């Protein structure tokens, strides 16, 4: 029997002519009811006159319904507009009746035909109420049957404002899935206890694991456009032990033709739990900055590089030069640009360590700006191969920067990392050396050298997010190096916007750092990713602690010892005031180190530590060099000249 009901419900629409016939029958029924009410529920009225009036009423009602089209609406989706159309039909019908009665009275064509005006008024009111009520009863009945006899998702909607109501309408109107809205959630205490379309509004504090289980909630749809990431993260954390799915309505500007579709409601992503509001940079100067420029982007096939290319391609650039040694990823970036209708770009497979190749590229295309994103960035791998790390991150940057300076490029923007701050790894130390070299070069070049420094990028190649996603897909466990490890995070578009902004505001020699909010505990991030995948920790997927990797820090920093910041016109972007360098000496030592590295010298890390005083290895074989560096510093301070002054620079 249940199957029969389900089959019946699968027929989405009743025939409009069936609705038309039912409406006419109800109109005739209310006409009889009006007579009974008018004559105190007795038969003290002329039945012959009534039998003459019924066909007349049938014609008038049919004409009115056909004129307005009130019978054409889908009954189970009856809304305010449909009720208005019903009112128009009834008002038109009553008006015709009144006009014909007055016309008959004045002309006397049919003396025996008349309808008391009180009957017409009562009939109009009764017809409107009964027709509207019949639609409402059918709508409620359909909803009840569909919820009880078919598979139903029980849903809570977070947000009882306009966006929440639009979400409600989108869900209940969905033809493919039956949603039962159990309640609206709103943090405004004044709304608690009220109802929207009969659905209660409850306070967010009531949403607990026990509430979810007792009410068999399948999904929470976050409809509020103003819900902070802190509250969203708190909600996910609070319900981490339940089976409820948490989804999110996209921003209004992403709705299709201004209307929300249930297909656009997606599961909350880890990017939504960043812990702060996304940084938005809307600087009108960017258009002027890049107008007519020839721009080189190295590492153009990487996560940051490809996003930089994408954003730069939207400006009126004369020519965009994409450089990367990874052939296949560079080809994909090239194809993406072509699909987007971009034509003012050239993709070049090249290695930044090849000075002759770079010289030929600069000579041919004469770039005016360079964004340097090419680098080795994986900490454990670079800890094993300092030769490669120095060859790319230091010598590659040196060759590229020297070439840019020689060809008098206007601006050179270098993308560094927070791992360059008080480095504990070879990778971080090489990025710090690259920062130091371009700072030295700034002193003798007309090119403006600018550095940007930021933390981990969500979704970038090799970052923790894609790793966790792959591990979840394989059934776990998620591997984590330490339960207390924390990191700063930002999105790829944010990172690229910061780089472009730095290229605009930079005057040369600055290190721009980013206010990235609070650092994120990776253990909590892992649990949230398991939760957002519809799984449970540790029942479905466990988290395995593997221990810190060579060179890895428990936490990252954005400022080194002895550094402080200056503000800029953007409150989220600051300039680091780094310690003064002996530029000529440091530049010479970095050049010497790059030369020595060609012979794969085993003591190259020791030389790096002498060059970068704050570089102290962590969980690495190179910790043995730290004591030697300390003895080296003591020896320097013991050497004195005849005047008793200490040599500080040996």
Quick tags:
single chain, 650 residues, alpha/beta, Rossmann fold, nine-stranded mixed β-sheet, seven-stranded mixed β-sheet, 21 helices, 22 strands, 46% helix, elongated, disordered N terminus, disordered C terminus
Describe what you observe in this structure.
The chain is α/β, with parallel strands linked by helices. It has 3 domains: about 1-145, no CATH class; about 150-270, NAD(P)-binding Rossmann-like Domain (Rossmann fold, 3-Layer(aba) Sandwich); about 290-585, Rossmann fold. The strands form 5 sheets. The chain has a 9-stranded mixed beta sheet with strand order 10-9-8-11-12-13-18-22-21, sandwiched between helices. It has a 7-stranded mixed beta sheet with strand order 3-4-2-1-5-6-7. It has a two-stranded parallel ribbon with strand order 14-17. The termini are far apart.
